[in-house]
């Protein structure tokens, strides 16, 4: 089956909340769907309002699989994670076509909030 989707995806509104409420942990995820016959090798670049972009974040989404890349767990090539409470945007680049969705679970208040959207 030929893979569906695109090789480049943009997520303009990313934010890893800096506060957790009780046992629920705030987090965000880049959800990748690969319907193709080859593994997708992903490179993620983070863009900021007031600093240079950060590169070196990598992930793999297997052929005919999905991968929910938790941004609170991914590390760059130097072992650094995503900073909390800093707005940023993302470019997700893949070597094969994939579909990308972004989701955020915000536990900063007692009434938990969840947001999910397709990337562009």
What does this structure look like?
The chain is an all-beta fold and 120 residues long. The chain has a single domain, classed as TM1070-like (Hypothetical Protein Tm1070, Chain: A). Helix content is 0%, strand content 53%. Strands 1, 2, 3, 4, 5, 6 and 7 form a seven-stranded antiparallel β-sheet that branches. Strand 6 (88-106) and strand 7 (113-118) form a beta hairpin. The mean pLDDT is 85.
Could you give the topology of this structure?
Layout: E1 6-14, E2 27-34, E3 40-47, E4 54-61, E5 65-70, E6 88-106, E7 113-118
Antiparallel strand pairs: 1-6, 2-5, 2-6, 3-4, 3-6, 6-7
Largest sheet: 7 strands, antiparallel
Strand content: over 45%
The CATH superfamily is known as: TM1070-like
Order of helical and strand elements: EEEEEEE
Radius of gyration: 14 Å
- How is the CATH topology named? Hypothetical Protein Tm1070, Chain: A
Q: Which descriptor suits the 3D outline? A: globular
Descriptive keywords:
120 residues; mainly beta; Hypothetical Protein Tm1070, Chain: A; seven-stranded antiparallel sheet; 7 strands; 0% helix
């Amino acid at each position: 089956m030929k893979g569906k989707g695109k090789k480049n995806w943009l997520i303009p509104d990313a934010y890893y909340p800096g506060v957790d409420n009780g046992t629920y942990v705030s987090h965000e995820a880049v959800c990748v769907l690969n319907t193709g016959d080859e593994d997708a090798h992903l490179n993620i670049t983070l863009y900021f309002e007031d600093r240079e972009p950060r590169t070196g974040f990598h992930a793999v989404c297997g052929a005919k699989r999905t991968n929910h890349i938790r941004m609170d767990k991914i590390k760059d090539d130097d072992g650094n994670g995503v900073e909390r409470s800093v707005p940023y945007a993302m470019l997700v680049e893949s070597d094969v076509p994939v579909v990308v969705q972004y989701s955020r679970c915000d536990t900063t208040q007692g009434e938990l909030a969840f947001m999910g959207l397709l990337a562009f």
